[in-house]
Amino acid sequence: MSEDTAAQQTDQHALTEWLLSEGFTAEEIDDSFAPMLLPARRALGDDGTRLSARQISEKTGMELGAVQAILHAAGRPRSDDEAAELYLPVDCKLIGYAQQCLSFGLGNDEVLAVVQVMTEGLARTVEMMRYAVLAAVAEPGDSELDVAKGTGALAAKVAPVLGPMTQDMLRTQMLHALMQEEVSATERLAGRPLPGSGQVSIAFADLVGFTSLGEELPPEGLERLSQRLADLARDLAEPPVRFIKTIGDEVMLVSADPVPLLEMILKLVDAAEADDLLPRLKAGMATGLAVSRAGDWFGSPVNQASRVTGVARPGAVLLAESAREAIGDADGFTWSFAGARRLKGIRDEVKLFRARPAPD
Known about the structure:
By secondary structure, the protein is an alpha+beta fold. It has helices at about 5-20, 25-30, 40-45, 55-60, 65-75, 90-105, 110-135, 145-190, 210-215, 220-235, 260-275, 300-310, 320-325; strands spanning about 50, 85, 200-205, 240-245, 250-255, 280-295, 295-300, 315-320, 335-340, 350-355.
């Protein structure tokens, strides 16, 4: 037996003895693919209990097919055996929350869609948190016992924060969406812009292929790309251009003068092109009346710029007709008509123009 093999067996024996002393059964340890994570699982609410879809249906009173559909939307395993005990007690709570949403008047399809989208979004969050936890507690050369103790202790501290943190962040996002809708609805109903609004140009720049990169890079790699884009945008943004925020894989900028904003966006796209570590960018820009609230911007040009960015090709900077007209005959650019498109959430077709730096 090699020294490495002997050390590994000693390490595993020490971990097993400690887990047994912590109340885990030999069966739980044997059945686990990663026994060193059992303490963290317990801290997050996994007491070893498993339920079947049939049991969840009986506990909640929800029809079995509906239970299975919601669990599937939540990414839980599927089985033709309705008595197979595959699910955690927290899965039963999920069904309870879904029932409440249905009782509030939400439709079945809408509830399923919400569960599915939340699951997809939280999956990325969990991957980033997993990395953060391991980075915080694991050191090169640590034994499995060291990792088990460290992750278990940190998970026990983090677990009580997860619910309130997720709830408040979700509430913040909903309030932000309602503020945007409030501005749009008021403009539609009143037929005029909100008091306090002003003429500004809005631009977004988006990393191309960011979603597919998530299949190739670890969460920390994606975070570094987003941060690199944000740092680059901040460095290039000079008054009157203002860096507003990052939204996942994109940055948002605003300027009262459209010309410096377009110059900055073109430089940003070129800088990303020259950066070996960044994917290509695509960008969109629109001009109109918007209102600033709590450091953010709301109004029709925000929505329009975002939609224009979505249809831009890699490496391209597209402008809605509103921004093209605002820039007029300013020097430093060449233009090509990119067609008219119907964009989501915008009633009329939007004429699009591609901008390029003028040759020296």
